[in-house]
Specification:
5 helices, disordered N terminus, single chain, about 140 residues, mainly alpha
């Protein structure tokens, strides 16, 4: 039998995704949104010609973080599935960019949010999507009609 937290619904009938540990997840994604948006906006507007790939990848990371944050706050089954897919794509991006920056650092004249698996962000970029996917998979119980 699902616990009360799993079946808690919003007034619109959407299942809440931000209760308990989900609230910490939303907070961390929100912090990453601010960091990635600030970093990429500054770098793209002032130094884009110096390192277009890393700065563009930081903007992609910012979009992923913003979408996941929105989906978690919105709640509901469709938002949960969308956030789960986006977390998987985010993890794939972190692993790809992280591996690329370790094996071919000369390809990146400057770092991205995902460089060296998020080392500049205390490895939160590689830990966050894993944690998000675990949380969202735990929330698989169907919403009561």
């Amino acid at each position: 039998m699902p616990d009360a937290e799993t079946t808690t619904a919003t007034p619109a009938g959407r299942k809440r995704l931000v209760s308990g540990p989900g609230l910490l997840l939303v907070w961390l994604y929100g912090v990453m949104v601010v960091g990635a948006v600030s970093r990429s906006a500054f770098q793209i507007s002032t130094e884009f010609d110096r390192a277009p790939l890393p700065y563009s990848l930081s903007a992609v990371a910012a979009l992923a973080y913003a979408f996941i944050t929105y989906s978690l706050v919105r709640g509901g089954e469709a938002a949960r599935r969308a956030a789960l897919v986006c977390c998987a794509a985010e993890l794939a991006g972190v692993l790809a960019v992280g591996t690329w920056t370790v094996l071919r650092p000369e390809s990146f004249p400057d770092t991205t949010v995902w460089s060296q698996f998020g080392m500049g962000y205390l490895f939160i970029p590689v830990i966050l999507p894993i944690t998000g996917m675990l949380w969202l998979r735990r929330r698989d119980a169907p919403t009561a009609p």
